[in-house]
Amino acid sequence: xxxxxxxxxxxxxxxxxxxxxxxxxxxxxxxxxxxxxxxxxxxxxxxxxxxxxxxxxxxxxxxxxxxxxxxxxxxxxxxxxxxxxxxxxxxxxxxxxxxxxxxxxxxxxxxxxxxxxxxxxxxxxxxxxxxxxxxxxxxxxxxxxxxxxxxxxxxxxxxxxxxxxxxxxxxxxxxxxxxxxxxxxxxxxxxxxxxxxxxxxxxxxxxxxxxxxxxxxxxxxxxxxxxxxxxxxxxxxxxxxxxxxxxxxxxxxxxxxxxxxxxxxxxxxxxxxxxxxxxxxxxxxxxxxxxxxxxxxxxxxxxxxxxxxxxxxxxxxxxxxxxxxxxxxxxxxxxxxxxxxxxxxxxxxxxxxxxxxxxxxxxxxxxxxxxxxxxxxxxxxxxxxxxxxxxxxxxxxxxxxxxxxxxxxxxxxxxxxxxxxxxxxxxxxxxxxx
Amino acid sequence: xxxxxxxxxxxxxxxxxxxxxxxxxxxxxxxxxxxxxxxxxxxxxxxxxxxxxxxxxxxxxxxxxxxxxxxxxxxxxxxxxxxxxxxxxxxxxxxxxxxxxxxxxxxxxxxxxxxxxxxxxxxxxxxxxxxxxxxxxxxxxxxxxxxxxxxxxxxxxxxxxxxxxxxxx
Lengths: 434, 169
What we know:
Largest sheet of chain A: none
Helix content of chain B: over 70%
Order of helices and strands of chain A: HHHHHHHHHHHHHHHHHHHHHH
Number of domains of chain B: 1
Number of strands of chain B: 0
Shape of chain B: elongated
Oligomer: heterodimer
């Protein structure tokens, strides 16, 4: 068999295994090992089963994954989500759509100290939804706002999607975290504008509430102070260069554990439960990274990226046209494929193409993460929508999908902006690098 | 089978809690190292020396529970298109693939650990042997193999699944 044939069969085999319910990580490992063995011999191929796990598991940088997830578990039991939401609601609740703005703001803030989008959504469905319903907000609009706020998490550092991207693409995590700042702010603004437009044309779905008194505002903000302090510690430490990402994750986990202890909200039972959930998720990420690492060797040896670039070179389109086609392909892939999985599988193919056309891998990280974010809310998968519907079956799925459309449009506009103007993502890292 | 289930559950859960508790302790020392380095110019060499080796044990400790809960990313887009019996056969085959790869991984890791021991690999400053850490990781991988064996038996017998974990992005 020629190298090209092995490459083609390998890619097909990957999709066949995945379609046959073999976990993505193990499909990548199986294809990577067998295809590498066919190109060289079995002995070096099998040694990947030891060398790659030892590198992935022994990476201090990657300990940030379970540590940030642990932080999420600790802040959850500390009640920080409620504190942040109450403070945002006290400050913004009196405006039309104010509780929705509070949900977006609270989710964005909580996203900075919580490990995952689904966790943010599940938490805000418990915390924010009853409050919004109490203020006569439309249930489906409230649910859609929570979904949009939760999906935002993917774009707010420390984001696991970004960490995964950086490990697979071998890009500096700090650069990607920095590059995400302006796009995250633009996305928050776009979501706020989406709410403003929706409530302007349909005021009945978000009635105006009575304003909170000055004392109520003060108490709410004071109560949220520890959560804000934690956010400040992580961001200031990370962006000032005092901490590495791993150190920031260590501080985040230890400090959030300390807050949970001081607040006496942590018990042996919820501690063990939180650690078990964290371990299951972290283990999944470790497996994916081991799989991706082995798979990348096969891709490189089969020279698949070079062949892909040669094929794309025959297409009569400018680079931006190729990028737009790729974005379309990702969004279509997201309809049948988990976006995070799609990112990990396609990155070894897509990244060389991106770099070939002169684009920055750090910019592509942000584009990828926005696609992950979109995938969280777009049907038929739309994981965070499914979570809300699972927790509140009385809010029908079709209504949630309908109400999420303005937020999806807002995200698509942000995606178009970032595609047209990569400088929006790359300006801050370049400034920090001097 | 019930005893086996209890044993596997207990081992996977204990490793998850123990591994992440160890990681939290490592995080506390990493934080202390950062503070001492920044403010007292007194880094903790031990953390730099064995941090990645301890991290490997902590990371490996997460793997068995991931297998037990079937928490790996699996695309089941067309699961409704097949009869239950076909889905069970596909699930069992997929679990068998995972089992074979886990056995291969644990075996290769054993060979890797032996090689490290024979080469007398030590950390560069404090000369701490690396092999015991890798043998510990390998031990955990064999626990993961046992857990996957249990999962495979459950898939073949069509027994109830463990609750799965949430997805992550």
